[in-house]
Design a protein that fits this description.
Blueprint (H helix, E strand, L loop, with lengths): L7 H16 L15 H14 L5 E2 L8 H6 L4 E2 L13 H39 L1
Length: about 130
């Protein structure tokens, strides 16, 4: 018979370490290969399940994309308020909209230049054909 007893200090340290790990939050990643596959919906369902187990659940940031079903899952969950953080080198949202708006115009000009080049190449080929 084996009468080796575990060291009580080592046992106590292991129990304390395990209980400290149990108190820490766990990271769960919801991964989807495409937009609209249900990542936010699944995440909020899991959050509601944890909340039903009386665990502390806080939503840091959620984009519902106007979906009523997703918005309804947020009810009863604590949502952190968003803050605007100014940092050098960032472009304000209103300027980004402007860049998007002029992108169409730049594309149209680029296409016009491309069409003009093709027309000039064709005209040069016709001219060279008559010259030879």
């Amino acid at each position: 018979m084996n009468n080796e007893r575990p060291d009580p200090d080592e046992l106590l340290a292991r129990v304390e370490r395990d209980s400290a790990k149990a108190k820490r939050g766990r990271l769960k990643i919801f991964f989807g290969a495409a937009a609209g596959v249900g990542k936010s919906y699944a995440m909020l369902l899991a959050a509601r399940e944890r909340r039903a187990e009386n665990l502390d659940v806080v939503v840091g940031l959620i984009e519902t994309h106007g979906r009523k079903e997703t918005q309804a899952l947020l009810e009863g969950l604590e949502v952190l308020p968003t803050r605007k953080i100014d940092y050098k080198g960032t472009i304000p949202k209103d300027v980004r909209v402007y860049f998007r708006d002029i992108a169409d115009h730049v594309k149209r000009i680029h296409q016009a230049i491309h069409a003009m080049r093709e027309m000039l190449v064709a005209a040069m080929q016709v001219h060279l054909t008559f010259e030879t």
